[in-house]
Amino acid sequence: MAFSSSVAVRELPLFPLPEVVLFPGRRLPLHIFEFRYRIMMNTILQSDRRFGVLMFDPTTGTVAPVGCCAEIVNHHRLPDDRMKIMTVGQQRFRVLEYVREKPYYVGLVEWIEDHPTDKDLRPLATEVDRLLRDVVHLSAKLTGQEIDLPDDIPSLPVELSYWVASNLYGVAQEQQALLEMQDTAARLEREAEILTSTRNHLAARTALKDALGS
Length: 214
Prior knowledge:
This protein is an alpha+beta fold and 214 residues long. The protein is built from 5 helices and 7 strands. Helices cover 38% and strands 29% of the residues.
């Protein structure tokens, strides 16, 4: 659910989050308790309700150069001016420079999008969707639990690539690399590689379980 803007470059309040990579169209709930971020959210709520989410790597102390703009869709105030907010990822951006660091970061950012292509990406998207369902089926068989995919998985290639990337867990660096890609085909191809590897691993474990069970 990207939004378009006639302004290619703008200042944006920035919220670095450890090991969190936000993608367009995805929801991100947040509990705001740090004083500086309470100030930030109160300011944002009086303007366009948008701020940038950037992945912070606690092991290196670095902040990613590319993030995703989040829009506050609802909020609930708690005691001591703490706040619970629900956000939705909008458009991706690249930080050009930091214009302020206190009380919170503000950056000059430019919006980025995938490069246009004449290639028909539907077959690749179909393959990624099939691999995803294979992984879910094998996971359910291995764990003995019923796992249902949501009914609203996107079918359009760009949106599907964001959806799959956002649902990779425990691999923030991989997610960040996918977020930074501006080639839809390359993102889908990388996701196909990840899902194929996961499917093969699960298939081997399932076969071993079946063999031991018999």
